[in-house]
């Protein structure tokens, strides 16, 4: 993807290309109160729907677990969260519109039982969500025109990861310039035409990877951007039975694959099913690989950007209007007061 008109005509691509600058300039201000509340509670629950939860929440939890942060962290969608005892948790509800029906329902329910520590994260001022939260933070990226959320997903994830860093007395600030450049490179790297063609012709596009939000978020973006069927194969699920229903015209994209599983994937999926496997990784693999820069603890943003790049190339090749899905809506299930 680059600045050529075939990409620049779409708000989706323009919003993706704004992401490096949003990352570079990111700051989490006025966070002292919520940081203190999280440290005191020791428990933090992330909720939201779709892209406002998948990558932001799961990336935060994955990064915290790897870093040994001593907090009890969890996430689920708002309807399921409504079945939990969240009384001891600080609850963060993310909704770009500030009017996602499920999130509004959960925070309204918690407010009615006098839960003191509910916070909001939105891309708009003066929303319904802000009336239900003790404090609401507004993203700097602004409202997106395209149906598929992109730049907001990255900023939401940075918000959560910086919030957790601040609970430990740290900050991501010194790493953002490097991250910004690595994301820019991933967005603009050339995707081999044979990879684009294979994915464009696939019956189903599978993403396989860690439960850190990256592959799962790209699975959702595949539906919105390419209009193709997709599935997320968590962890090593790709070699634990799914091959029974795969076809030779399917494609599997490995995101940051486990090196120890590559031979088994080749044996099971390439040799066994006859399908094509590609990888997004910071090192070479057995498969055609979109290789990105290794920047350590913030690497997931780079993998996500590389995935966006791939999906845009596929969507353009298929002649799809990347901004306007046929059925999907910008606000999937909107609260109407």
Name some characteristics of this structure.
10 strands, 337 residues, alpha/beta, five-stranded parallel beta sheet, globular
What does the model show?
The protein is α/β, with parallel strands linked by helices. Helix content is 41%, strand content 15%. The protein has twelve helices and ten strands. Strands 2-1-3-4-5 form a five-stranded parallel sheet, with helices on both faces. A five-stranded parallel sheet has the order 7-6-8-9-10, with helices on both faces. Strand 8, helix 11 and strand 9 form a beta-alpha-beta unit. Helix 2 packs parallel to helix 7 and helix 8 packs parallel to helix 12. The N and C termini lie far apart (41 Å). The mean pLDDT is 95.
- What's the mean pLDDT score? 95
Oligomer: single chain
**Gyration radius, in Å:** 20 Å
Structural class label: alpha/beta
SS element count, helices:
12
Strand residues, percent? 5-15%
What overall form do the CA principal axes indicate? Answer: globular
Q: In which order are the strands of the major sheet placed?
A: 2-1-3-4-5
Chain-wise SSE layout:
Blueprint: H1 5-8, H2 11-24, H3 32-41, E1 43-48, H4 54-67, E2 72-75, H5 78-81, E3 90-94, H6 101-112, E4 118-122, E5 135-138, H7 151-167, H8 176-188, H9 193-200, E6 204-209, H10 214-226, E7 229-234, E8 251-255, H11 262-271, E9 276-281, E10 289-291, H12 299-317
Parallel strand pairs: 1-2, 1-3, 3-4, 4-5, 6-7, 6-8, 8-9, 9-10
